[in-house]
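Worked Example 4.2. Consider the chain below.
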Amino acid sequence: MASLHPQCIQLFFFLSLLVLQLSSAAARELTDGGSSTLNSPAMTVQYHNGPLLSGKVSVNLIWYGRFKPAQRAILSDFITSLSSSTGSVGQPSVASWWSSNIGKYYRLAGSRRKPLSLSLALGTQILDESYSLGKSLTKKQIVALAAKGEQNYAVNVVLTAADVAVEGFCMSTCGTHGSSRSAAGHGGSSSSRFAYIWVGNSETQCPGQCAWPFHQPIYGPQSPPLVAPSNDVGLDGMVINLAGLLAGTATNPFGNGFFQGPKEAPLEAASACSGMYGSGAYPGYAGEVLVDPASGASYNAHGVDGREYLLPAILDPSTSSCSTLL
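Applying the procedure from the previous section yields the following structure tokens:
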């Protein structure tokens, strides 16, 4: 199971990367597409010859606890934005962030195996507003909740409300992704596995760890927080974490895809570039991002229905550097 660790851990890792970057003659370069590429020495991601998510895959959302309809719309619109047509939203877009970055992993894997492609779409949404398993969940219970969704050509995303405690949340992780054996009656066979993700709302528990840069960090440099694009620190933080975990799920769904380091604690497409959102990023500074003139909110990607999102950098497997939209 791969985890997305709190920002205090991420910033420490990023600091070590920065020291290496500063010793390099060129700290970053611009690609032809206009996105910024931050050089990260010794960040070569390895392909372990396992399967990537492929085909038409539904992203099912399992809402555990109470979320306002407007909060659910923030995340569901983000999923829809991943596959929105280029001409329907402003640029840079969520769709271009996904296709330009994750597409490189598929082209690299396809050069060794048969050609691969992935198309994500918003699937079923399940509401559990009665806290059926209580307000303190174990990792096994997260998997049980994930298993409620369809399991064939799907990623099941468990989203826990701000008043739900989850094992390891805020102490060692902001979210996780993994896989579990499929159950009969949910679209899978007993011999297959389905991919799942869990992300928690950190607004009242640890926003400085899991919702940075929209909240003052607990440790490290204390620069002013950015204004959240949806004016919801918890949900906008969840978007960042979900985006990174989706990238890890697509490129390493079953623990034998793209990653570096030990399988038990891998660095993946997004977790290898923690804390970077725009060019010039360094510990305590998210990088150069766009600012909405009306709301003052910071973002780097446009989504459907006029949405604005802040999305993490992704490790470019062809250059071994962290790539941002700006």
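The two ends are 31 Å apart (CA to CA). Residues 248 and 260 are 12 Å apart (CA to CA). Compare this with Example 4.1 before moving on.
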